[in-house]
Amino acid sequence: MNKTMGIENKEKSILLLMTPATYRAGAFLQAAQRLHLEVVVGLNLPEALADYWHVPLGLDFADTTKSVQMIVDYAHEHPFAAILSVDDSATELAAYANAALGLANNSPQASEAARDKLLMRQLMSSGGAPCPIFRSFWLHDDPDWIATQISYPCVVKPRRLSGSRGVIRANDPAEFIVAFERLKRLLLADGASEHETSVLVEDFIPGFEVALEGLLTAGKLQVLTLFDKPDPLDGPFFEETIYVTPSRLSATLQQAIADCVSRAALSLGLRTGPVHAELRVNEQGPWMLEIAGRSIGGLCSTVLEFGSGMCLEELILRHAIGEEVSSVQREEQAAGVMMIPIPGAGILKGVHGIEAAEVVPLITGVEISAQLNNKLVPLPEGSSYLGFIFARGANPPDVEAAIRQAHSCLRFDIRREIPLLKVSVNR
């Protein structure tokens, strides 16, 4: 990964905060190059490794105070026009650093609320954004007791994990106890403290899901696109699969969804930059699930084009450095992406049928991101996908059908891990 890009026009420099494993680095770096921006990468790396790899800004994202000071010190010699986190990993750090340097950004409090599901729910509820009834409980609480305090069906959620990781539906007390214990094991394995960590339990909202991609300017929402999610997401786990745009919903319902997201953003205090919102919709209208102060994750953004071929990342960077982007519209052609689900745990030994999938009409690409001979972990414990299928066409139904046909061509050779047996030898 290139650490710094010297571009012809060095009047504007930006800092991109990212982890070494992010999917989003390439898209943002390429967009910055097209805009002739000088880019500095702030990488989540221990200081010793940063020096060894000659990374100008190796940061510990978990140590906000120290990282902000390092960014401020660097900016004194190399001023930034904007600081952005390319994904969830450093949105709060970006907010603190922008605030310290007097740059436009969401407040640290708003960025925290967009990462913490409990705080998000509390602010949405008080701000009038429709959201599920919720309660929080400590990991050390007795699940048998919790099971008597809640309604069913319900959804158990971690407060800070992303990508539906750890999110489990329970239809009755017995299922809840199993779900709670499973989430507890996951969080403890990730280093959480049993006495300092709480989880969210909320009512399950029936209906279908949509995802809104937007851009906030001084608190005003510009809808970039609305994705339909044609596969039902009713649990027990909530693995994302197909996104298709433009939405097939009525203009009236799409406006209600946009109004709901605007209310949620206002409730949290989000005022500028990209937002990615997830909602459920039923006969009562839209309900907020989550809103994040960043753009869509993974490689999904590659299906979006604006104006004359502008990608989402370029649009975000233009907005961040103060350019006018309110008149930019998404292309008219329909587009879709599938996040290929992991069918089971094991070691990925092979992927077959890629060539057949790629020649399906309307398919524009098949990207297998999982590495061969690596361990696959499905939801709710896992945090990744096998890869992505992309398509474009004249209308959403044709795009969706092409993605499903391409996916049916793929075969994944996943070998179950065989546990090693302990052998005792008598001497």
TrEMBL record:
InterPro entries: ATP-dep_AA_Ligase, ATP-grasp, LAL_C2
ATP-grasp domain boundaries: 121-321
UniProt signal peptide: none
PROSITE patterns for this protein: ATP_GRASP
Ligase is among the record's keywords: yes
Keyword field: ATP-binding, Ligase, Nucleotide-binding
GO molecular function, one term: ligase activity
PANTHER family: ATP-GRASP ENZYME FSQD (PTHR43585:SF2), FUMIPYRROLE BIOSYNTHESIS PROTEIN C (PTHR43585)
Name of the featured protein: Phosphoribosylglycinamide synthetase
Organism name: Dictyobacter arantiisoli
